[in-house]
Amino acid sequence: MSKKILIIVSNTNAIGPNNRRTGNFLPEVAHPYAEFDRAGYQIDFASLSGDTPYLDALWMAADPDNLAFLVGKGWETMQKAKKLSDVDVSGYDAIFVPGGLAPMADMPENPLLKQVVRETYERGAVVGAVCHGPVALLNVKLSDGSYLVNGKNISSFTTAEEDNYARADVPFDLQTALTEQGAIYHVAEPWQPMSVADGNLVTGQNPASGKGVGEKMVKILEGK
């Protein structure tokens, strides 16, 4: 049977004191989606509120995988994302959380999301996230009371990248927050690809890392 992937997206469209327009960052959705699609997986979308999600970085639409997502089934399916509370996540082989600034607004503390991440991870399914998406892993406590990221090899959008992108707009620094919860943090030069797998957990640093995260998730899934 085909593997099933659930992409969990933010519903936020503005962030920070100046209401900076934001959304889910196009290549961070489209590049992993392309890897899952090429592997022949069933790909579904869920959002926290069930409202239509937003896309950011549409200026990058000329990229082949981004364009294929926009004009193919990807964006059409994403617009019909189900409310996360209405989805039986236990039926999926993997969950994936893309970035963009949007998740920094609605994902740091969402209790259902934290439960879904914990349960997915603990049953051995694959958990993936890229850029600001690893904020979904923040504050997740496992059944033994430890933080999920404690002692895990993790990457995300870095302090150095945020300083030159959206420092005034984000509520906290993601690299610092993950490190404070015990993450073994991996960093490449700003805007360069970096993805890392640790067991069934896969994370990536920035928009250039979405493809690598998708590839690593597929490799793990094909090994199961």
UniProtKB/TrEMBL annotation:
Lineage: Bacteria, Pseudomonadati, Bacteroidota, Flavobacteriia, Flavobacteriales
Coiled coil: none
Transmembrane regions: none
Pfam families recorded: DJ-1_PfpI (PF01965)
Domain called DJ-1/PfpI: residue spans: 28-217
Keywords, alphabetical: Glutamine amidotransferase, Lyase, Stress response, Transferase
InterPro entries: Class_I_gatase-like, DJ-1/PfpI, Prot/Nucl_acid_deglycase
A biological process term (GO) from this entry: methylglyoxal catabolic process to D-lactate via S-lactoyl-glutathione
Protein name (record): Type 1 glutamine amidotransferase domain-containing protein
Any GO molecular function: glyoxalase III activity
GO cellular component term of the entry, any: cytoplasm
Family stated for the protein in its record: Belongs to the peptidase C56 family. HSP31-like subfamily.
